[in-house]
Specification:
Distance between the termini: 24 Å
Order of helices and strands: HHEHEEEEHEHEEEHEEEE
Structural class: alpha+beta
Radius of gyration: 18 Å
Number of strands: 13
Helix content: 10-25%
Oligomer: single chain
Length: 274
């Protein structure tokens, strides 16, 4: 398998809106292992060059249904890049988000945490107490996920991991500094797309029941032992509303209760010719 070539092709597809063709040997079921997928993901970040500055991580497959659908044993993680991050503190005027919708863009309402201090596993597992002591703020978040692969290829965990963890864009709302006064396991969110009925969820809907447990999982992942999380980095802790299809011109609003609202508008980008 030509790891660097595949990573470069995946990144190029992300940047141009084109579709990345997979080598024949990876189209067979079980051909790509999780460990190999993370190696491709690292090469993907390297291929991004200056656009690959990591400002945090997303955690995917945080419910058992998706873990099973992707053929995984646990969640997965992927990098969040500064080049595809928007910060929106205006709850009244939707932020315009241009996307390559041909990549099958879908939106997830999530809760985001930001680190106050560096945190590395060391010689024992990180606990929720460790995480609590090192968080600066929490915020509303939208992760927009997509695939740079042909839509006819059945999605698998390793393929999603290799493809940058499936991330397309990240939007983070107003930081909430007084988060320690809240029950972090039962924060509610209602996601509305246009005139459709809102989809409701809460921060305790993952397999762990607690988004901070997922931050622990990330820090305790063998591939994260050496790097950990740095002060100022963020973690998007998995969807609370499922992944909903996006279309040109849609307006999306999510009400996160005490954390406020997050509003965006979707616009379609045209594919860039090679």
């Amino acid at each position: 398998m030509q790891t660097e070539k595949l990573a470069k092709n995946l990144w190029a597809a992300r940047q141009t809106g084109q579709i990345c063709e997979l080598p024949e040997e990876l189209l067979r079921e079980g051909a790509l292992q999780v460990s190999e997928a993370y190696v491709i993901q690292d090469a993907y970040t390297k291929a991004a060059g200056d656009d690959g500055e990591i400002i945090g991580y997303k955690i995917g497959a945080t419910v058992q249904k998706i873990i099973s659908m992707f053929g995984l044993d646990e969640p997965f993680y992927g990098p969040l890049y500064k080049s595809v991050l928007d910060v929106s503190t205006d709850q009244q005027n939707p932020l315009d988000i241009p996307l390559y919708l041909q990549h099958g863009s879908r939106i997830e309402a999530e809760f985001v945490v930001s680190m106050k201090n560096d945190l590395v596993r060391g010689d024992k597992d990180i606990t929720v107490a460790d995480v609590k002591n090192n968080i600066d703020w929490i915020a509303p978040g939208f992760e927009i996920v997509a695939s740079r692969l042909d839509s006819s290829i059945p999605p698998t965990g390793p393929l999603v991991i290799a493809d940058g963890g499936g991330n397309q864009h990240m939007v983070v709302g107003t930081p909430y500094k007084e988060w320690t006064t809240l029950d972090i396991t039962s924060l509610r969110v209602a996601l509305s797309i246009g005139d459709q009925p809102p989809i409701e969820g809460n921060s305790g809907m993952s397999i762990t029941g607690n988004p901070l447990e997922l931050v622990c999982w990330l820090l305790n992942h063998p591939r994260m032992h050496a790097t950990g999380l740095k002060a100022g980095q963020i973690v998007s802790c998995g969807t609370c509303t499922g992944a909903l299809d996006l279309h040109d011109g849609q307006q999306i609003v999510a009400d996160y209760g005490v954390l406020g609202k997050l509003a965006i508008k979707i616009s379609s980008k045209s594919t860039v010719s090679s």
